[in-house]
Design brief:
By secondary structure, the protein is mostly helical. Helix content is 78%, strand content 0%.
Amino acid sequence: MQHWLEFAIVTTLFWGVWGALIEMPEKRGFPATLGYVVWSLTMIPCALVALSLVGWKLETDARSIALGAAAGLLGAGGQLALFDALRRGPAYLVFPIVSLSPAISVILAVALLGESTTARAWTGIVVALIAVPLLSYQPPADGAASRGRLWLWEALAVCLAWGVQAYVLRFANETMRSESIFFYMTATGLALAPVAIGMTDFRKPIPWGLRGPWLAAAIQSLNSIGALTMVYAFRYGKAIVVSPLINAVAPAITVLLSLFLYRTVPHRIVAFGMALAALAFFLMA
């Protein structure tokens, strides 16, 4: 098994479990914005472990700092924009738009990095790009409404940011260590934490015990570990394969776990997306 696939599988597994559990703190009253703050803190031990593996050799030249910070800002900034998009617009429209980000990654990787692959893998990529928006499908909620059209531009911005981030990760891995990339991703995530705090509505009661930040930390650790292995996946693999694979398979795992944990039967459109995700994994892996 190739290294990129090993790391990509770890990311999809951890993100799949994270996706199934992420709503638990929110349902107990812990805001998603504070969940972001907790996530940025859980990135620290992962960054320290990564740096220890390379003898604490952090690249500090301007190019490395710029590339690492760009990857971090695109990812973390997109997450913050997503919070506001979901506050203003309907989730059943926001998520399918955001889920198109792998298509941008593929276009950039082909046009700017000159990546190519086999006909079988290309088939898997196309199948994955079809599966991702299907897996993001949510039936319109009763009374779902949106305020203006700012949410649409925010959703498009998130889609663009996360699509470009995958390209930046692959491009940066050609000239710098993955460990340095992740360190700067951690630093930028922490730098944006005050923005998330400012977006939090503290007028509502917030649990500060085990069911709040501590539960969020346990769950967000899965996200952080998955982010680290994602960086390694982009070191060894092609963006045109890694990005669609992760974005298609992780949501499918989330849906399967939700079925067992919450007895939530997926919509037939989502179920079709799961079947396509499985086919895409077989073709690309």
